[in-house]
Amino acid sequence: MADKNNFKTLISTLTIVLLAFSYAAKSESQHSQLIHRFQQYLQINTAQPTPNYMPAVDFILLQAKSIGLDVQVLEYVKSKPVILLTWQGKAKSLPSILLNSHTDVVPAEKEKWVHEPFSAHKDSNGDIYARGSQDMKCVGLQYLEALRNLKDKGFVPLRTIHVSFVPDEEILGRDGAQMFVGSKDFDSLNVGVVLDEGLASPDENYRVFYGERSAPWWLVVKAVGAPGHGSKLYDNSAMENLLKSVEIIMRFRAAQFDLVKAGLACEEEVISVNPVFLKAGTPTPTGFVMNLQPSEAEAGFDIRLSLGANAESLEKRIAEEWAPASRNMTFQFKEKEPIKNKLGVPLVTVANHSNPWWTLLEAAILKVGGKLHKPEIFPAATDARFVRRRGIAAFGFSPMANTPILLHDHNEFLNEAEYLKGVGVYEAIIESYASYMEAVEDRDTLSEL
Ligand SMILES: [Zn+2]
Fold first, then answer.
1. What pLDDT is stored for residue 343 in this prediction?
2. Which residues pair with 287 in a beta bridge?
3. What is the pLDDT of residue 429?
4. Which residue among 38, 57, 96, 192 is least enclosed by CB atoms within 10 Å?
């Protein structure tokens, strides 16, 4: 008897070991498939200014079909496809969930990277190098992997889940998210809450963004004046007047930056002004004419306003001090978006327990072992501004902890383990959002600053 029992025990132990092995092998191969799909998406070169969107569309549609999502490709502007995927929920009348990401990436200076920026090379640490690995092809595919896992688990959503892949975010989203969010297609989705991009966090806590600084104001100031010989001393040359302006603008910049350096304000609470180009001089094949004072000179600035900034007073300052007519100066905005909505208030999504979308998000992240920083204001503009302007709740969140912030930088990478963890985080969030029964009123989710 004893022998028979021992034999039985041995068999069941062996079975458990074999099962454990096969499970580990299965999950190992699933993980490598997930990483492979991420690398495939990263290898598609969708860098501005000439993003190759069509291969990205084909790839996303292939994934969506393999998961079993409904697919649509919307083209508000020719060759700028918006991909919309849908998993229909049981309760069609409840507002839906929209998971947004952008398909384009910023350009990369190949020679300054350790690995080719569109090779998606994975090194021995599991770091995957590619333009878009953080901003934000990771998020787009993590959404899809999370949906794939939820389908496999037999999950049935109550609320409808939409996933959008939009073009041109890196060039302000005019032909992408702005067109989409302003469309009848978007109205018909009855969106209740949107997830969009956030930023990596160098420590173990994830970051969530509930609002953002203004979209850029791109200012060009121009000075004109009489040209003159390089040896002549005279007042009001174009160069003299432009440099005076640059000096005044840089003083303003320093005053704002000092507040940050002194710890009196965070970066998103001040107005940033950064010079981005200077244009003057008469070119020659090898440089510039050196004995001629030019008749025109220009400088360009990227300005970001904090949510509480007074736009009118800044505009007055630009007209009176930065580019005054009295110094033969003019100015022009290449880009300028309002920082407030139609009602004159800057809108942010409520990030406390009075907003159920926040409560669910926080709980889902904590449930899978994630940790969170206090919610923050995003320092730049994202597509989320278009939905917030419509009064819809939106959170910026890219699940990348223990990761240096490398968006738009050389050698952008994301570790495979962080990527896989992020898929689990989205699974938890989507499951929770799509199962939420209660009605959520818009007034619960938005607040004035
Ligand atoms: Zn981005």
1. 65
2. 284
3. 98
4. 57
369: left (phi over 0), alpha (psi -120 to 50) or beta: left
Secondary structure element (H or E) that encloses residue 22, with its range: helix 2-42
Ligand 1 centroid – CA 201 distance (Å): 15
End-to-end CA distance of the chain: 77
H helices of 157-279, where?
179-181, 184-189, 238-261
**Residue 247 C-alpha to ligand 1 middle, in angstroms?**
32
Of 223, 201, 150, the C-alpha closest to 373 is 201
- Pairing between β-strand 70-77 and β-strand 80-87 as defined by DSSP bridges: antiparallel
| Catalytic residue check, 169 | yes
Distance 432 CA to ligand 1 centre (A): 25
Residue stretches of the chain with pLDDT short of 50: 1-2, 449
Centre of ligand 1 from the C-alpha of residue 186, in Å: 21
Percent of the chain with pLDDT over 70: 91
Tell me the domains of the chain and their CATH numbers: 26-213+342-448 (3.40.630.10), 217-335 (3.30.70.360)
CA distances 285 to 119, 166, 214, 288, 295, Å, are 37, 42, 40, 8, 20
pLDDT value for 344 = 67
Rounded Cα gap, residues 126 and 34, in angstroms: 13
Exposed e or buried b for every residue in 57-71, given b needs 16+ CB within 10 A?
bebbbebbeebebeb
CA 138 / ligand 1 centre spacing (Å): 10
What was the pLDDT predicted at 351?
94
Q: Work out the mean pLDDT of the chain and round it to a whole number.
A: 92
- Give the model confidence (pLDDT) of 157-211 as tens digits: 999 999 999 999 999 999 999 999 999 999 999 999 999 999 999 999 999 999 9
Selecting among 145, 169, 197, 298, the annotated active-site residue is 169
Please give the distance, rounded to the nearest whole angstrom, from the Cα atom of residue 168 to the centre of ligand 1. 10
Query: Which two structure tokens, joined as six digits, stand for 438?
Result: 């209660």
What local confidence, expressed as pLDDT, does residue 130 receive?
97
Q: What is the pLDDT of residue 342?
A: 67
